[in-house]
Design a protein that fits this description.
The structure holds 3 protein chains of 3 kinds. By secondary structure, chain A is α/β, with parallel strands linked by helices. Chain A has 15 helices and 15 strands. In chain C, the strands form 2 sheets. Chain C has a 6-stranded mixed beta sheet with strand order 6-7-8-3-9-10, sandwiched between helices. In chain C, strands 2-1-4-5 form a 4-stranded antiparallel beta sheet, covered by helices on one side. Classes of the chains: A alpha/beta, B mainly alpha, C alpha/beta. Chains in contact: A-B, B-C. Bound molecules: adenosine-5'-triphosphate and magnesium ion. The site of magnesium ion (MG) has 4 residues of chain C, from helix 1.
Chain lengths: 424, 350, 265
Amino acid sequence: MNAVRKKEWLCPRNVVAGLAAGAMLAVAGAASAGVIKIGASLRMKTETGEKYGQMVVDELSAINAAGGVNGHTIEIKLLNDECKSDIGVANATKYAYQDNVHLFVGSTCSSVSLPIVDVIHKAGVPMLIPHSTNYKITLKGSPWVFRVPISSRFSAAAAAKYTAENIGTKIAYIWASDAASQADAQKFYEYIRNFHGEGPLYAEQFQEGELDLRPHLLKIKALQPEALMISAQSQDFARGLVQSYEVGIPPSVKRIGGSAASNRPAPILAGDAIKGVFFHAAFSYVDPDPNAQAFVKMTTERYGVPTPDHDFSQAWDLVQIAKRALERANLTLSDDSLAADRAAIRDALATIQGYKTLGGGVVDFCADATPECRDGNKTPVLIEYTKGGEDYELRVIGKTTFGADFGLDGMQEEAAALRKSLDN
Amino acid sequence: MAEQAASLRFIDATERGLTRLRAVHPLAPWLVAFLLLAPLPWVLLNTYHVFLANFICVMILLSVGLNIVKGFCGQVTVGHVGLYAIGAYTAAVMSVNFGMTFWMSLPIAVMVTLLAGAVVGIPSFRLEGAYLALVTLGLGESVRIFISATEYLGATNGFSGIPAPRIGDFRFDTYQKYYYLVMPVMLLGVFFSFRILRSRLGRGFMAVREDPVAAAAAGVNVRGHKMIAFLISAGYAGFAGALYAHMIPGYLNPRNFTVIEMVTLLLMVVLGGLGHIWGGVIGAIIVTIVYDITKDYYHYSLLLFGSVIVLTVLFMPKGIGGIIDRFIATRRFIAIREGRATRPGSDDAA
Amino acid sequence: MLLRTENLSKHFGGLRAVDGIDFELEEGEVRGLIGPNGSGKSTFFNLVSGIYRPDEGSRIRIGGQDTTHFEPHRIAALGVARTFQLLRVFSEMTVLENLLVGHHLHVAYGPVAAVLGTRRMRNEERRVREEMMELLAFIGLADFAAMLASELSVGQRRLLALGRAMAMRPRLLMLDEPAAGLSPVNVDNLLRIIVGLKERYGLTVIIVEHILRVVMDTCEKVTVLDHGQKIAEGTPDEVKTDHAVIEAYLGREMEDDEVRRVLQG
Ligand SMILES: Nc1ncnc2c1ncn2[C@@H]1O[C@H](COP(=O)(O)OP(=O)(O)OP(=O)(O)O)[C@@H](O)[C@H]1O
Ligand SMILES: [Mg+2]
C-alpha cells in the first residue's frame, strides 16, 4: 500500500525535479569567473542583420585574441529577436537572470528596446543600444541605459536645422494627407517658426494619390521660395518633384522630402528630379571621411557588404565603446560579484566622452539618468542624391550637431509619467 | 515486460489516487494541483524560469480556449491572436488612458473580447473549413493592422506603461509575484474547460464538429453551440490578453500578434492534441519550453516549427494527448491479455 | 394525426426531388416508404426533419404544429428522430457519447451547473449515463461503450445510429434504409429490435427500405414514391400488385409475376 502511494507522489515530484535539474544545468553553464559575459539581442532576420551580428562577434573575438580586456576574456552570446518585443523581452530576461550577463547589447528596434529598458532596469544590467531611435527609451530615465545611435528628438529636426542654417527659411510646404507625411511637414515648419521666427510661405495639404499638384506648384513658383518641402510617400513625392520642374520652379530652389525621401523607390520613381534632395542618417557609406571609407573597405572584404548602413556602422561603434568601458571598469568577475561588476560597467560607460563615430558624430555619456547624458550621438549626417534612377548616387553634404538638451522642452510631464511606469 | 508492468502500475496508481481524491471532494484534485504548483517560483532556480512559467500560463489560457472552438467544436479559426490582441489592448487602454485598476480593466477586456468573439463567430454559421479560416484570418489580421495604424494605441511604436496589478499596497510587480496571479487564473481556466467539455455542452461541441447535420437532427442547436464555443474561446483570449498586458514590462506591440504567433498557437493545440481535453495544456507547455531551448538556433526555428506541425498532423493526428491515451490503452490491453486483471484495487499482490 | 404534409415539394435546380406530396401518418402507425433510387425518399425525410427548406407552398405539420420553417433541432425537440442513409455516427466520439448526444434534449442541466458541478448536475449525469448504458445493452453494444464509433463494424454502426435515434426518446422515428448492407441474419436481428422498440415505447415509425422484405414484414401500410411523387399507398399486398408501382420499379416490359418475384425479394 505504502509503496503504491509513494508512486503516486512520484509523478508531480518527478516533473518538478526534472525542471529543477534543467534549471541547474543552465545555471552551471553560465557561472564562471574571469569571463565578461555579454548578451546581445538583435534583429537578424535579414542577411545584413546576420552579418553585422557576426561582425560584433568577430570584433569581440579579436579583442580576446589580443589578450582580452585587462586579462579577462569576453564571451558573447547572440539571440535573434526578430524585431518582436515579446521575444526581445524574453531574451533580455534570459540574459539577466539565467546567463547572468554583465552587459546587455540590444536591440536594433525601438519597439523592442522600449520594453527591454524595464526588464534591464529591474534586473540592474547595463544596456548598450546599437540602433533604436525612439526618444522615449532614454526619457524613461533608467540609470542602466546607454544609447549609441541618434535619438529621434534630434533626427526629427535634422533636415529643418540644416535647411535653416545653410539654405534659408523662406519655405513652401505641400504635404499628403497621410499621418506620417502630415507629421513630417508639421515638425519641419514648427522648427523653423520656433528657432527662426519664420512662418511658412505656403502651406497646403493634398490628397494622397492626387495626380496633379501643378496648381499648388504654380502658386509656389510665384512666391519664389528658397526651399520647397514635398512631404509624401514615395510615389506622390516623386510625382511632386517631377512636376515642380515641369512648372518651372528653378533648380536653385532646394527640394526637401519627408522621411520617405530615403526610401529606395523615391530615387527610382523620380529619376533625376531627385537630384539635390537630402535625408539624414547616422552614417553613410559615401562619406569620404577616411575612417568611414576604411570601414566600408572592411565590410566589403570581410562580409561582402559594400554599402553598409548605419545599423552596421553603429554596431561597430558599439563594440569600440564597450571595449573602452570594459577596460575602465574595475571587475572582480567572481561568482558573487555579479551585481558589483554590472554596476562597475554601468559607471564606466557613463565616463565615455568624445568617442568619434564612423558617421562623424561624437558619443558622450555621463552619469545622470537623463536623455542629455544617455543619448550618445547628437550629430546626424545629411546625405544628398546626386543622381536619380536605378543606379542612384549619393554624397554627404554636411553634418549638424544638436545641443544635448535639444527637443526636451515641455517633456517634463511625459518624462515623469515614463519614469513612474518604469518603477511600476 | 517488467517495464510494462511498472508503467501500468503507475497508471493505475495515479488513477486510483485521483479517484480517491475525488471521493474526498470533487474539487480535491484541483486543490492538490494548486498546492503542487504554488511552490514553483521557489523550486525554479532563476527568475527567467519564473518568467517562462508565467508566459506558459498565459499561453495555456490561449490554447485551451482555441482547443475548445477548434479542437472540440471543429471550427477552423485562425483569428485567435486577434482576440488576444483585443483583450490585451482593451486592458491597456482601460488602465492607462482611463486610469482603471486591473480589477476593472480585466473584466472589461474580457467583455470586449467576448463581443469581438461573437463577431468572429457569426461567419461560422455559413462558412466551413478553408473559407472560415480565411475569414477569421482576415478578421484577426485586421485587428493587428488597425492597431498598427492607430496612434491612440501607440501604433507601431507600441503601447507602454501598463501598470502592474495591485491589491492595496501589494503590487504584482515581479515575475514571482505575478505568478500568483496568473497561475490561479490558468488553473481556473483549465478547471472551467474540464467541467464544460465533460458536460452536455462539451458533447454538443463534439457532435457539431463530427457532423453538424446529425447533431442538429439529434436536437443540438448547431449555431448556438458554435457561438458559445467562439464566446468561450474569446473569453479565454480576453483573460490571456489582459494578463499579458499587465505583466512586466507592461508593453504591447502589434508585431506580437501576427500570423507567426497564430501558427505557434495552432502548433500548441495540434501538438498537444486537437480535441483532447489536455491538448491545450500539454501543447502550451511543450512548445514554449522547446521554443526557449532552441532559441539559440534561431536560424532554424521556423523550419523546425513548420516541420513539427506537418509531422504531427501526418503521424500523430491526435497529438501528444492522443499518444498518451493510446499508451495507457495498450498497457491495459496487454495486461488483460496476460490475464492480470488490473482494475484498481486488484493488483496489490502482483 | 402525428405527421401531415401538404403539397410538400423540393427542387434542386430543374430537378423536382419531391413533388407535391400529401402524406398523413397516424399515431402508432408503422409506415413503409419505398420507391426506386432517386425517387425522393431521403429528401422527404430531410424535409420533414428540417434539414432541407421546403419550396414555397409546402406545409408540414407535426403533432398539430406547423413546422414548415422550423430548424432541425426544434423539430427534434418535438420528438422526431431519424437515422441517415449514410449513418452519420459521430466517429471520433465513443459509443456511449454518441447516445448521450442523442439524449441531448433530455439532459436537464445547464452550463453553469456543469461548471459548478452541482449535485443535481452530477445526479443527472449519472442517471443519463445509466439509462444510455441500458439502451446500449438493449441494442447489444454495451461491451463497446468506451470504444470510438469509428472502431465499430458497419453493422454495429447501423445499430449505433438506431440507438442514437432511440436515445432521443422520440414519438416519431424515421429510419432511412436501416438494413442496407446487413447480412440476412443481421437483418432479422434488426427487425426484431425495431419491432421490440415499437412495442416497448409505442412509437410511430416510417421506414425507408430497399430490402422489401423488411417493409412487407413490418409495415401495415406502404407509401410508394417515384420521381418525387406519391404513386401508390396501401397495404403491402395492395401495393405489391399495383400497376403503377410495378411500372415504376421495372418499366413496362416485364411480366407481372416476374415483377412480383423481384418485389418479394
Ligand atoms: N442536396 C441535393 N442537391 C442536389 N440534388 C439532390 C440533393 N439531394 C438529393 N438530390 C437529388 O434528388 C433526387 C432524390 O434524391 P433522394 O436522395 O431523395 O432519393 P432516394 O429516394 O433517397 O434514393 P436512394 O434510394 O438512392 O437513397 C435525386 O435525383 C438526387 O440526386
Ligand atoms: Mg435515400
